[in-house]
């Protein structure tokens, strides 16, 4: 528990600074009211959400006051994306952080303006991979029929599911729940990898960075496991401001976010999370997830029609 809280403590500093970095982010008039911050629960990995509510509020308040926000902040963690959408629409959220897949859903319903994504050594994208033991000879997803797999929850959970379902539908399989003998949802990517390593499941889906990290920590993992299939690169969390947010305030936020990697404290936090820097949002960052969403929808409609 102590280790989890310490990890979460560090995470809150990271996201707080991402959203509030700099001494004069907004004008004095804006600083007289609370900064309204909303997080999707899916951006947190291996964290108890009850702890998240308390620690997020504590650290965001501390950071807002240090940045000159006399009224502190109001922080909400959302389990339900529809409620988050409603609160953005009614201006109960000024700044938000959601997964790339969630952002696509939100922007079609409420006015939001994406401002930043994180960039690792490999760039702004992350690949998902299906891992199996090297002695296995999987050539197609259908080779996993009636076999158990493990999938971690967290930042890429919706993307894991989207990619997995799309790959299966390409081979004519509409329902993964009945295709696999079991789909085990685990807390962390490392747990999913170890379940394959110890032959508790046939395969798992994790992001490539998690697999590479596990391989560095335990060379035997890299020796005995291998990626069988890989997704297109997909961005992780997307930071956004609500529609009609003050343009000058938005510009100040973007400017300070982009300078995080030049500040010793900001660089330390980015390094801790294996991120190189934060970069301004570009439309092309979402292209891969948009293509995946479209293909998923088209295949779903085609197979559903075929089954009628």
Overview of this protein structure:
By secondary structure, the protein is α/β, with parallel strands linked by helices. The chain has two domains: 2-122 and 234-285, D-Maltodextrin-Binding Protein, domain 2; 128-231, Periplasmic binding protein-like II (D-Maltodextrin-Binding Protein, domain 2, 3-Layer(aba) Sandwich). It contains 13 helices and eleven strands. The protein has helices at residues 2-20, 28-31, 49-66, 81-89, 100-107, 157-170, 176-179, 189-197, 208-217, 219-224, 247-258, 264-272, 287-307, and strands at 35-40, 73-78, 95-99, 112-119, 128-133, 148-152, 182-186, 203-207, 225-230, 237-242, 277-280. Helix 3 links the parallel strand 1 (35-40) and strand 2 (73-78). Helix 1 packs across helix 3 (49-66) and helix 6 crosses helix 13. The radius of gyration is 20 Å and the shape is globular. The N and C termini lie far apart (51 Å).
